[in-house]
Structure formats: C-alpha cells, structure tokens
Amino acid sequence: MKNTLQVSESAGTQFAYPLVNFVRRGKGSPVILAHGLAASLHDWDDLLPELEGVGFSGFALDLLGHGESYKPFSPNEYTVGTVFDHFSTWIDSLLLQEPMILVGHSLGGGLSLMYARAFPERVRAIVLINPFYDLKQLPSVLRAFFRRPLMNTHLIERTPYRLFRMLVDLSSFNVQLGHRETHLLPERVREQTALDYKRAAPGIYNIPRTLPGLADDLPQIHHPALLIWGDRDQTLAPESFIDLTRRLPNLKSWYSLPACGHVPHQCHPHTFNPHVLDFLKSI
After folding, report:
1. How far apart are CA 258 and CA 10, in angstroms?
2. Spatial distance between the Cα atoms of 39 and 117, rounded to a whole number of angstroms
3. Are 24 and 57 in contact (CB under 8 A)?
4. With contact defined as beta carbons under 8 Å apart, do 40 and 174 qualify?
5. CB atoms within 10 A of CB 210
6. Which of 142, 95, 115, 97 is nearest to 33 (CA)?
7. Helix, strand or coil for residue 266?
8. How many CB atoms lie within 10 A of CB 53?
9. Which domains does the chain carry?
C-alpha cells in the first residue's frame, strides 16, 4: 500500500512542508524504517516483504527533501531539526496503538536515536545500520565540505543521471582479487541509488552539518538495540560503530559485515535480513 499523507500541524506548530510519501506493508506490530542521506524508501525493498511475512507492519517513508516527499525550495530549510520534525509528525499521524520498532540507516539511524531519546515510551526497540550520530564519524574532507552552508545548488541540480550512475558504479566496484562478484551492489540497487541521488533536493547536503552530537545521549537510551555495519564503509568511520557498542546500555547484539560498505542492507540482504528478523523475534 502506497500513501501520500497531508500533515498540517503538530504540537501547535504549523508546518509548511506537509507532503510525506510512504509505503506500508503487512499487518501487525509497527516497524518504522528511515533511510539515509540522498536515499529513499526503496532502501527497504528487500526487508519490507520479509517483515510482512513474519507478521509485522512495515512503514517506510521518504524523508524531507527525498524521493517523492516535500522538497522545500530554500537550502536553509534543510536541517536535522526540520527533518526530525517532518519525521516525528508523520509518525504521530499514523496513530499507532503500540510502541514501535525503529530501523534506521545512516542519517535515519541518527533520527531513530533522537526519536528514542525524545519519546522513549513510544519505542519498543531500535535497529541501527551504519548510524550517523556525530560529525566526527565523517572523513576530514567531508567534514570540511559540510562545515559551511551550501547556498549555490545549480551544479548539483544540473548533474545528469548518467554521472550519478557512473559514481555509484565506481564506488560499488569490487576490486578484491578472486572475488566472484563484480560489484558489491546489485544492478537494480545501483540504478535506484543513482535515481535517488538525482531526484533528491540539493539542499539535503546542508543537513549533516546541523547534526547535534548524540554520543553523550547514548547511555540514556535503554531500549533493546541491534547494531549492524559494513566494515568497508568509506562514508562513516567503522571504528565509530565499535565505539557505539560500548555506549548503548542495552545493545543485545551487533554484527559487522566484512564484504559490505555503507549500505549492508542493500549489499547482502540475504545476510542482513536474518539478523534483523532474529532480533525482532527475540524481543
């Protein structure tokens, strides 16, 4: 089921960005899935059917500025705060009758941690995939890029799909000798990833610089948690995920996938999905 939801206000605050594009699969306990920067709800194309198959109701959205959700015109409107308001207002509109399970990748992982900290009684458990929770996780080049607001977006707007696709293919290419796979990501995933980059609002690249450091809040998040990351991540430092294993007080299990990079849920879903389903059954 695909939905386009109009949301007008939350907690007395009027929103100018009402459009939330999302899909729902299955009936049962709610699972909220939040993607990373420059991605979309299609990140969860492999996981959603399996959640439905074991009796959960999966909700996956396009975050603010992504996919088919509302895209503010001004780059200044893209902050972690506006994305979080958009995300939490959408969750409010679902009128869920029981605590939810949050599944978040990268930026979506940071949003999931923020939501669990702000509304602990609404959350049952958390699944974190290569979560983005501190600017220090980024390489120095990316930190420098995100240090100043992005005002001129013309170059990004005019970048053709084929260039995004070439960059995705290059980043996915597996140079490991003797490995049977040419790419770490399947063809359909690389095609969708390039499309998501192309259709995302250029202003989204202002979001990372506004991320508040969440490291000090982690010990106060007591929900059962699962952490999964790819050892080849070149976007966020893998050692930051190891640090996370020491900071989350109720981390039930964690897994590092050596053959995956920043998107293990898309790289090897046949390995990733069973870890998630086993965790959900255990809680």
Report:
1. 42
2. 24
3. yes
4. no
5. 15
6. 115
7. helix
8. 11
9. 2-157+201-282 (3.40.50.1820)
Q: The tokens of 31 are what?
A: 């699972």
DSSP per-residue letters across 59-105: EEEPPTTSTTS---SSGGG-SHHHHHHHHHHHHHHT--SSPEEEEEE
Report the C-alpha gap between 122 and 115 in whole angstroms.
9
- The token duo for 264 is 């293990």
Q: CA-to-CA distance for 166 and 10, rounded, in angstroms?
A: 41
> Coil, strand or helix: which one is 133?
coil
Q: Please report the pLDDT score of residue 51 as a whole number.
A: 98
Residue with tokens 């220090």: 136
> Which tokens sit at 155?
């170059």
- Alpha-carbon span 26 to 48, nearest angstrom: 8
pTM: 0.89
The pLDDT tens digits for 207-253 are: 999 999 999 999 999 999 999 999 999 899 999 999 999 999 999 99
Cβ contacts of 186 within 8 Å, gap of 6 or more: 266
